[in-house]
Amino acid sequence: MALEKSPALRALRAQVGEGQAQVDAATSLSNPELRVGNFRSDRLLRKVEADAFEDFSIGLRWSPPNLGAQAARRAEAERRVEQTEADLEQARRELVAKVRALHASAISYQAQVEHARTAVALRGELKKLVGRRLEQQAATLLDQSLADLDQLDALAALQEVESRLRQTLHDLRDELCLSAGTPLELSPADAPHCAAPTGDLATLLANAKSTSPKLRGFRARVEEVEAEKTRMWLELVPWFDFIQLSYVLGGRDDPDYVAARLSIPLPLLDWNRPELRSLGSRRQRIEAEQQAADQELESQIRRTVEELADQAALVERYHEAEPVLDKGLALLRRALEAGQADLVQMALVQNRTLGARRAQLRVLLQCQLTRIDLDRLIADDWRKP
Asked: CA-CA distance, 245 to 61, in Å (whole number)?
């Protein structure tokens, strides 16, 4: 949906179509000219004693294309189309990655909202228990103040994550070109996984560089410069500026005849030296930018792979600790129901258990976002909406 409705992508697709039209225009032929000369109205009106059509001529003038320069001009246009197509693919990757990241964030925030509500409920139960203990003179005002602060923290955390969820859903609707308030059905089954990339780093780098739209765009720019350079050299080869054939009326005493004219510019004074030097400098600049982009891509992939490996290991560690967290929450609930546990111990277990569960959800989201970013860089599964 996002790929179809995105205004930015529609503009780039239109630009591709415009470039393809320019490719066809680069090889189009010029129209011939109809040329009429030596027609005198005074003779037609008999103001001058002479044949009105004496020396009258009618002919066609045409500029034949320089086939070599025309082919080079077409190559320039084709390279510009390739650049636009590379920009289009890069924009698609960015959009897909952004939608996937928003989708994963929304699912994570939904889980964090449920967790925050659980935390509010548990801390509310603890606050009630402290109130009963205080009535029985088995707790202090300090215990009550601590319980109040814990509940305030839980309510603030719930409000914060609910706000993040609303903003994420708003951004997701914008990217999908949906109107405000349109209900969204998020499928957790489609949430991106969190796992370290398979295969060696060298293979990932090679695949990323070979499929990178940005690097392909740089290569197309270099080829465009070469095509323009070829065209400039070919334009120095003497070639017809125009060819003209005319039929001339000779008058009463002279016979009619056919006249031919042609024009061939001679490149004796202008050899396009400044333009050729400019092209050489432009190519050097493009190649330097290409090398910088290549190094930046490699650095991003190396850093992202390392981050993903660390985050995946941390997610796995939290996954292994889930039985401990579940047991802690179960013990906390039983203690609250029994109302006999030490308040300090319950508060400590509550904070540690709920904090660990919240950290687990955040680490999982960060790992998923890093994986999405890596998919964007190496063109792995990036076409998923």
From this structure: 7
